[in-house]
Design a protein that fits this description.
The chain is of the alpha+beta class. It has one domain. 53% of the residues lie in helices and 14% in strands. The protein has helices at 2-13, 15-30, 74-89, 93-115, 128-135; strands at residues 34-40, 43-48, 53-55, 58-61. Helix 3 packs across helix 5 (128-135). The protein is globular, with a radius of gyration of 15 Å. The protein starts with a helix and ends in a 7-residue tail after the last helix. The relative contact order is 0.13.
């Protein structure tokens, strides 16, 4: 009974992210971008062909997002780190983490277009480095 109460509270606490996650899930399903879905740690881990984003109980990840050959599915681990941020921050997650993360993605795309190479510092700043720590993504140099 206590577990159900806690999960219900968390669902409401993360409601904005959960609603957005459900919309993204449905879009992915309609566009056939969803590869697999697994339920683990009270979250849905949805492997997609392209996208890595965490929205409440919906964790979208892609093999293309993996950075380290010594880890299996580090994109999945990183996005789980964002899910933990969501559980901590609740309704302010989209403002604190979401907007900052989107800004970093846009800068990374601009950087690639301007310089013809990936921006190496994407995961070194907030909130990406925090998500890596929470998801236990450890680079080979650590």
């Amino acid at each position: 009974m206590l577990k159900i109460l806690i999960l219900s509270f968390l669902f409401i606490w993360e409601l904005p992210q959960n609603l957005m996650g459900l919309m993204v899930y449905l879009i992915m399903k309609i566009k056939r971008l969803k590869v697999t879905t697994e339920q683990e740690k009270h979250r849905l881990f949805i492997e997609t062909t392209e996208t890595g984003v965490s929205l409440g109980w919906f964790i979208f990840w892609t093999q293309k997002g993996n950075r380290f050959p010594h880890l299996k599915n580090d994109c999945r681990m990183h996005e789980y780190g964002h899910a933990r941020q969501s559980a901590m921050l609740g309704p302010v997650y989209l403002f604190v983490v979401g907007i900052t993360s989107v800004a970093r993605v846009l800068y990374r795309k601009w950087y690639l277009k301007k310089y013809g190479q990936n921006w190496k510092n994407y995961f070194n700043g907030f909130p990406e480095n925090w998500a890596d720590r929470l998801g236990r993504v450890i680079s080979p140099s650590n």
